[in-house]
Fold this protein.
Amino acid sequence: MAVLDFAIVVLYLLGTLFIGFWMQKKASESITSYFLGNKTIPWWALASSGMASNLDLSGTMIIVALVYALGANGFYIELRGGVVLIMAFLTAFMGKWNRRANVMTLAEWMEFRFGSGPEGRLARLVTAITSLLFTVAMVTYFAIGGGKFLDKFLGIPSFWGLSSEFWAAAILIFVSAVYTIASGLYGVVWTDFFQMVLILAMILYITIRAFGIELPENLLISMPLKDGGFQTYPTTFSEWSNVLPKWNLDLDPANAYSIYNLFGVAVLFYFFKVAFEGSGGATNYMAQRYFAARNDREAGLISVLWTFLLSFRWIFVAALAIWGLSLGAQITDPEKVLPMVVDTLPMGIKGFLVAGFMAAAMSTFVSTVNAGAAYWVKDIYLVLIRPHASGKSAMMQSYLASTVVVVMGLSLMLVIKNINDIWGWITMSISAGMVIPFMIRWYWWRLNGYGYTIGLATGTLAAILWKLIMPENTEEYFSFIFSCGLSILGTVAGTLLTRPTDDKVLEHFYTVTRPFGFWGPYKRRRDASAAIAIDRENRRDLLSLLFAAPWQISLFLFMMSLVMRQWSQTLMLALILALCSLGMYLFWYRHLSLQERAEQ
């Protein structure tokens, strides 16, 4: 980069640190202030922060790689996580269900569901531990992507036996960690808002430039091989830009992406997976946004604005993939499309874009670290180690926990090198081990804390075991089946072999949350008018989901198709989007409640 580019990047980093330290005094008032912003942060700021947190650099690099290599069909692979289809469930009902618990962390929620006795405390502890492990894995994922991207522009040499990519990631993570540790959720949300504005400006620039690119009908695309090399494959622009998913990809078995050859089966499996995950509710930093919401209505508004803003990611991805195709033989590794595109930009614009991508990386990282630190402080330190610790001591533990999580995540970068490898493991193995107990906790009154704990621990250990013993390039759905299957066995066996949760705890949970599912014994205790009102709300929620899920998918595909200038399919997607929007208005938006809780 030129001196001007470096100056822009430095100015951005200083601005980010300024916001973080400016918010430090307010954030350090208490741990509620540090982790939830005292529930005074506006819903639109929480939604903007959520969008910026989802649009991470590592995820964008792998999604661009998949769309570059597989065309619009690459979108469907990222149903496993990058499409964030859980937003449809959060919009319809999960957002308000999470908010109603009035807790600070997902682990603390476990005592709301299972009580404060031994089973509730055990469920809380195991949730905190597994969530911390998940946070470390996510930090590693961010570090790998950030290191690959920044290494190309910062020109940092390798030293002390560590690669230049490691040191590039370390710089990015150090700056992020400083303002996260200093300012908590206040700093996270408001720096995310600042970063979202920068990200949207970056998306606008790339999209306008991509609209001016005319691609030939016949294309050559570079894809990775399982042995670490790369090979070119022919395709056509018409085939590449078609949003209708194929049933088979017919790639050479030597191709690393041949694990997706049974494409139709894989896509159906991804839908199945995200339906389970969405039904289980938000986790980690996503749940934290809803815990910080002030009422049910704001929880719904957060969801829909978050989803709309996130749709711009798919304009961006399509524009970058088109630009990458225009570079021809300059592209070998699809995961390097994004930095290769930025490298073609003129002075000044390059610095602006690098700062924008750093914003994308940092916003996701800081949200994850802040949520992860909350598990240590709120669910382990203040419960098991020093229940009567002073506010100052709790804040010091917040800073310490954030630091340890960052160091551990960065250290794992020395072992794991590939973005898709770590992302596939996170979304299809670790998440699979958590999905069953996370889902059942909402819908089956008989699930107790012991069954939940055994299922979660079994699934998490299965995911770690899979990573250690299974060969690379194994189809991802096998890892999902392995972790999820063992988790189901642990959850059901642990529940049926132990006594039910205390009746008063279950009644309180049902009264406050009002979920649908197998809650007959507690629903029958309600008077007739209250039971009718709960049934009416539950039916609206399910109808809303039937519109919210296709609304989100068609919105994202519409954004991609628009950039690809496939006008007939763009019009078709626009019609689907309009119908889904009407359904959401009728069954969801008109019924958003302004009350803290619906009347019993």
Observations:
- The longest helix spans residues 164-211.
- The longest strand covers residues 218-224.
- The CA atoms of residues 369 and 574 lie 38 Å apart.
- Strands lie at 218-224, 230-236.
